[in-house]
Amino acid sequence: MKTAKAPYEDGEDVERGVNCVDVLLCYLLTSIHMGLQKSQDESIVRTKATNLQNMEILSNLTSTFPNFLLAGIPGLESAHTWISIPFGCLYAIALSGNSMILFVIITHQSLHEPMYYFLSMLSATDLGLTVSTMSTTLAILWFNAREISLDSCIIQMFFLHGFTVMESGVLVAMAFDRYVAICDPLRYTTILTNSRVIQMGTLMIIRSVVLIAPLLLLLKPLYFCRANILSHSYCYHPDVIKLACSDTRANSICGLIDLILTTGVDTPCIVLSYILIIRSVLSMASPKEQHKVFSTCMSHIGAVAIFYIPMMSLSLVHRYGQSAPKVVHSMMANIYLLLPPVLNPIIYSVKTKQIRKAILSLLLATKQR
After folding, report:
1. Top-confidence residue, 285 or 185
2. How does the record say this protein sits in the membrane (predicted)?
3. What's the structural domain count of the chain?
4. Distances (CA, A) of 130 to 88, 276, 318
5. Cα–Cα separations (whole angstroms), residue 350 to 109, 143, 284
């Protein structure tokens, strides 16, 4: 006789089966979740690794072959075409004026004197300054061509800063010429001979190369990793080193040495020359002679003023005018380089009788042809 199974025993079997199914489902869900989490973590790791690799490649490219973006006239980008008209006219005046002075000095035998040799050097440096910045400025205004490579930037800075140093040296030589002519006129021809003028010109070129070349060679090892946007329409050394992420102390020290050996030496020499000239002129008895001497010096004083005043103003704006609008920085930078080449030919044509006569005779001869 079979024994009847208690009803509760069947219920226990069912409950145990349900519990086993629950455990199995939990295990499966946990395994799936862990698998998905692991896959997601691996994907995140791979993405981060790829991003880091891309950043490293981009950083290496930026540091090895950096390209800079030059600035036009900030805030007036839509009017660049119209702004290019006065800029083009100023460049044309600078090129034609300085070229004309060079031509009349070379072709007129009466102007083959030390004073005019130095004036021809001044015109040559003004032409160099104009040509070295004209291409990038007009390219931005006409075609919005703002990109420039590091090598092209270094080449432009070599000519820009090189001609600036040369012009400062020429102004010192012209001040010395005026000092000898006024304070020691009897020895003028023996002191400032043609060979000595050539030596002085050669010394200016050598000084310019020796001071500027190391300054620019120190730029090559620098690491650039920031947004390489310059604040001028040409490459300017203080602007470029601001964008470097590596140590620029050597560049700053070299720049300071260059500043001391150029402006720090040339400016006192010019001031001393004119102090001695003024003392000599005031000792003259005749007011007419005093007026004549001061008149011959006015053109050189004007050249010194239009060269150093914009330079010092730009330095002050860079150092203390951080809150000034960007358009102020841009306009000051363009005035600094455009003012001397544009005004020097005008000043010397108006104030120097021999230059004025030579230019008028050239223009009349051209008109008669």
Report:
1. 185
2. Multi-pass membrane protein
3. 1
4. 11, 33, 22
5. 20, 37, 26
How high does pLDDT run on average in the chain? 83
**91 inside domain:** yes
Determine the Cα–Cα distance for residues 258 and 250; give it in Å rounded to an integer.
Answer: 12
* pLDDT class of 201 with cuts at 50, 70, 90: very high
Answer whether residue 43 is part of any domain. Answer: no
Query: How far is 366 from 369, CA to CA, in rounded Å?
Result: 5
Quote the domain boundaries for residue 287.
Answer: 74-368
Whole-angstrom distance, CA of residue 98 vs CA of residue 117: 13
pLDDT band at 326 (very low <50, low <70, confident <90, very high): confident
Q: What pLDDT, on a 0 to 100 scale, did the predictor assign at position 1?
A: 45
pLDDT digits (tens, 9 = 90+) for 144-162: 999 999 999 999 999 999 9
The alpha carbon of residue 345 and the mean position of all alpha carbons in its chain are separated, in whole angstroms, by: 24
Q: Residues 122, 104: contact at Cβ < 8 Å? A: no
The CATH number for 162's domain is 1.20.1070.10
d(CA 349, CA 60): 53
**What are the residues whose beta carbons fall under 8 Å from the beta carbon of 317, sequence distance 6 or more?**
324, 328, 329, 332
Q: Phi and psi of 212, rounded to 5°?
A: -85, -35
Q: Is the dihedral of CA 169, 210, 310, 83 positive or negative?
A: positive
Asked, for residue 200, whether it belongs to a domain, the answer is yes
Instruction: State the DSSP string of 222-246.
Output: --B-S--B-SSSS--HHHHHHTB-S
What pTM does this model have?
0.80
Separation CA 351–CA 157 (nearest Å): 33
